Automatic annotation (TrEMBL):
This is Phosphoacetylglucosamine mutase. It is an enzyme of class 5 (isomerase). The keyword tRNA processing does not apply. Pathway: Nucleotide-sugar biosynthesis; UDP-N-acetyl-alpha-D-glucosamine biosynthesis; N-acetyl-alpha-D-glucosamine 1-phosphate from alpha-D-glucosamine 6-phosphate (route I): step 2/2. The active site is at residue 81. Mg(2+) binds at residues 81, 300, 302, 304. InterPro entries: A-D-PHexomutase_a/b/a-I (IPR005844), A-D-PHexomutase_a/b/a-I/II/III (IPR016055), A-D-PHexomutase_C (IPR005843), A-D-PHexomutase_C_sf (IPR036900), A-D-PHexomutase_CS (IPR016066), AMG1_II (IPR049023), AMG1_III (IPR049022), PAGM (IPR016657). It comes from Kwoniella bestiolae CBS 10118.
Length: 561
């Protein structure tokens, strides 16, 4: 619906006032010299001291996006996830609760790199015209930030970007909360049916707790779970959630020092556990996992990633249950429920898994051997999320623990209209619908995914060892190789093979053939002059040897030898 027509004189006057307000804000938050910004999958992310000008400009873009979509609510999250505490970042969330439309990423990059106030005004005006934005439309924004000390000052810069538009912009400040909760509130605010849930933090907790209780039924209370919160915002969200959930799942939060300087993500959190393949020292020293059968998990700094782990009962060795392990268990279980519900026959519902080249080869082999289709896509959440939409129930998790499950509209309709053939099929349908409510389908969500894992384990009657027993990860190694020019490395086939430099892939193939179950690929970094070499093989020694052999080939291919 278009806004009421204004007289040309009044409209011109209002436009001049808007541009003056933008100029004032731009002068207050000037772009630093010699800094280049790029909006990627994670939005903008760098040292917090370099970001005030970016936050102001993201405020402008968020309002443009909302006005272009006739007042639909846009989300803005200020976070740097698993990065060190001095970093920060910002990303936009579309009305669906999913990431910003990729075609707008270039607009974010263009605005953030305008070197002067005048160039910013010129670029803003050009964008508004090019995108056919009616600046008289209302705009609605919901925004939040994590526990980083730099957050409040960056939020002021963001709010300045909103304020230049005057009363046409309505905002909701969620304060300190997790990235997934911001995504949830954005989606819920735009859901005019009200079916998705209340657009508040409390609404999120109620929806998750309600679905989890439905799934657990009379199986509770479950075994205790220790949760490493990475000294981040997940600690606050988890505490609030526990008070809503009650004692059905005894949760013991660890690493909850959200106000201690330097503690965020330091020697703890999902990224530490995954990269070091070890317990956080704080968990190790607490001995909470010494009792047989005890399991733990780690969130990352903004609670959108999760990995599980436990200690082997007899050997006492560390065992990681990462994103691959989560995806396999969840996909197998949902596939079983679809069969029990008879929806594989009547509606031909298909459960599929989406992976990247970094997924462990054993997980891929395990799934395909059990007739679960697997799609491999380039690295990046947007590629995984997009491909998961192609399945009726699409499961995707990166090995780092970021992932979710998507239920298609057709799958939900089939579940809601199905005629159960038996009490078993009725129960399976009820559980599938509860899982669709429990899972945050907009984005990877550590809290939601934790409940997903716990619900599946409860239904299977498993502990961590039974979950882990499905398949053994192949030993693997990831090596970062600095190169003079990463652009000469061009990957193809979902980043599993190199197209250029010519002749290099053939040499990598030759190296792989020398190792039992050897697999390796080379992927150029998106942000720095380096490439990453991934290698896996039957033994740790072979995986290391293959990784170093391919590293030498990369140096040869880049002219360093």
């Amino acid at each position: 619906m278009s806004s009421p027509t204004k007289s040309p004189t009044k409209a011109a006057h209002e436009h001049a006032l808007l541009l003056n307000s933008i100029a004032e804000g731009a002068n207050e938050y000037p772009k630093p010299e010699h800094v280049n910004y790029t909006y990627g999958t994670a939005g903008f992310r760098t040292l917090a001291t370099k970001l005030p000008s970016v936050l102001f400009r993201v405020g402008l873009l968020a309002v443009l996006r909302s006005k272009r979509l006739e007042g639909a609510t846009i989300g803005v999250m200020v976070t740097a996830s698993h990065n060190p505490e001095p970093d920060n970042g910002v990303k936009l969330v579309d009305p669906s609760g999913e990431m910003l439309d990729p075609t707008w990423e270039a607009h974010a990059t263009a605005l953030s790199n305008c070197p002067t106030t005048q160039s910013l005004i010129s670029t803003f005006t050009t964008l508004a015209t090019h995108l056919r934005v009616d600046l008289h439309q209302p705009a609605n924004i919901v925004y939040a930030y994590d526990t980083r000390p730099s957050g409040p000052e960056l939020i002021k810069a963001l709010e300045k970007g909103f304020e230049v538009f005057g009363e046409s912009v309505k905002t909701v400040n969620l304060g300190i909360t997790t990235t997934p909760i911001l995504h949830y509130v954005t989606k819920a605010t735009n859901d005019k049916t009200g079916e998705y849930g209340k657009p508040t933090k409390e609404g999120y907790n109620q929806k998750m707790a309600g679905a989890f209780k439905t799934l657990i039924g009379n199986r509770g209370p479950l075994a205790s779970l220790y949760v490493d919160c990475a000294n981040g915002v997940g600690a606050i969200a988890l505490q609030e959630f526990i008070s809503t959930l009650g004692d059905i799942l005894p949760v013991h939060p660890l690493n909850t020092s959200t106000s201690e300087k330097g503690a965020l993500n330091h020697m703890c959190g999902a990224d530490f556990v995954k990269t070091k393949q070890a317990l956080p020292p704080s968990v190790q020293s607490s001995n909470v996992l010494s009792k047989a059968g005890t399991r733990a998990c780690s969130f990352d700094g903004d609670a959108d990633r999760i990995v599980y782990y436990y200690l082997h009962e007899t050997k006492g060795t560390f065992r990681l249950l990462d994103g691959d392990k989560i995806a396999v268990m969840v996909a197998m279980f949902l596939g079983d429920l679809v069969v029990k519900a008879k929806l594989d026959e009547e509606h031909k519902l298909q459960v599929g898994v989406v992976q990247t080249a970094y997924a462990n080869g054993s997980s891929t082999k395990y799934l395909t051997s059990r007739n679960i289709p697997v799609t491999c896509v380039p690295t990046g959440v947007k590629h995984l999320h997009h491909a998961a939409h192609r399945y009726d129930i699409g499961v995707y998790f990166e090995a780092n623990g970021h992932g979710t499950v998507l239920f298609s509209d057709g799958a939900i309709k089939a579940l809601k209209t199905a005629s159960p053939q038996s009490p078993d099929s009725a129960n399976a349908i009820k559980n599938l619908l509860a899982f669709s409510e429990l899972i945050n389908q907009a984005v990877g969500d550590a809290l939601s995914d934790m409940l997903l894992v716990e619900a599946v384990l409860a239904h299977r009657g498993w502990g961590a060892p039974e979950w882990d027993a499905g398949y053994e990860d192949l030993p693997n190694r990831l090596v970062k190789v600095e190169v003079p020019d990463r652009s000469i490395f061009v990957a193809t086939d979902a980043e599993r093979r190199l197209q250029y430099p010519q002749g290099l892939q053939e040499k990598i193939d030759e190296a792989m053939r020398k190792y039992d179950m050897g697999r390796s690929f080379v992927r150029p970094s998106g942000t720095e002059d380096c490439v990453r070499v991934y290698a896996e093989a039957k033994t740790t020694a072979e995986a290391d040897s293959l990784a170093f052999a391919v590293t030498d080939l990369v140096k040869w291919g880049s002219g360093q030898t």
